[in-house]
Amino acid sequence: MWGGVMSDKRPPFPPFTTETARQKVRAAEDAWNGWDPERVSLAYTEDSEWRNRDTFLRGRAEIVEFLRGKWEREQDYRLRKELWAFTDNRIAVRFEYEWHNHEDQWFRSYGNETWEFDENGLMRRRYASINDLPISADERRLVL
Prior knowledge:
Layout: H1 18-32, H2 37-41, E1 44-52, E2 55-58, H3 60-73, E3 75-86, E4 90-100, E5 106-117, E6 123-135
Parallel strand pairs: 1-6
Antiparallel strand pairs: 1-2, 3-4, 4-5, 5-6
């Protein structure tokens, strides 16, 4: 959504600079921390390809369904992303996020993602590798 209107373009556009790559990373972090699967899905191409841990997805409808389930399981989700590297139309990030399950066990999840964008600034590929570490509530660093 840009200016209240759905768009098939998401600036900044490739080729990326350090500044525009950081803008993409920040926009992704902000969107994911909003827990709105429909909003998040609009940053991806209609046929976007994902690997998230051991789950493989294709397209916005599958992304929305996946994120709804994720945020149902991962309560009070809070994410931080950091730019790792970039090229013309690709960005690599490392991240950590914290969440708790329905039994109130907290976790910190660590991972890396590689992203590939089309000419309109939409992400056409997202590959994520993630590991979870159980933590106590007082070990949290990413407080809402």
